[in-house]
Amino acid sequence: MTDGLPIKMLHDRVLVKEPREDGERRSSGGILIPATAQVARRLMWAEVLAVGAHVRAVQVGDRVLFSPDDQHHVEIAGDEFILLRERDLHAVAAERNDANTGLYL
To answer: What is the pLDDT of residues 77-97, one digit of tens each?
Structure first.
């Protein structure tokens, strides 16, 4: 909310919040990656917080996969969020997805 006003997403826009990975993490091969390391050009997962009226495949609470090149950052009430178009999403992770969706990630 900005100044106490509710926000309505328009058209095919999706508002997401990227989970912050604080501290060190390990790769799948067991390599320790320090918190200061930047991994360039990899796709990112984020949680959907709001969707526009024309969004068809994504719902609030889903996790979506997108490219860092397609994102626009916005600050709302001191928190940073990412604004995307639905067409820029690569995958959706949700409980409602069938087990046989062809997802090979």
So the answer is: 888 899 999 999 999 988 776
Task: Give pLDDT tens digits for 61-81.
Answer: 999 999 888 888 888 888 889
A 10 A CB-CB count for 55 gives 19
Q: Which domains does the chain have, with CATH numbers?
A: 13-93 (2.30.33.40)
The whole-angstrom separation of Cα 39 and Cα 99 is 30
Strands 63-66 and 72-76: unpaired
Contact (CB, 8 A) for 13 and 83: yes
Where does residue 88 rank: exposed (0-12), middle (13-18), buried (19+ CB within 10 A)? middle
Structure pTM? 0.71
Lookup: tokens for 94? 């949700």
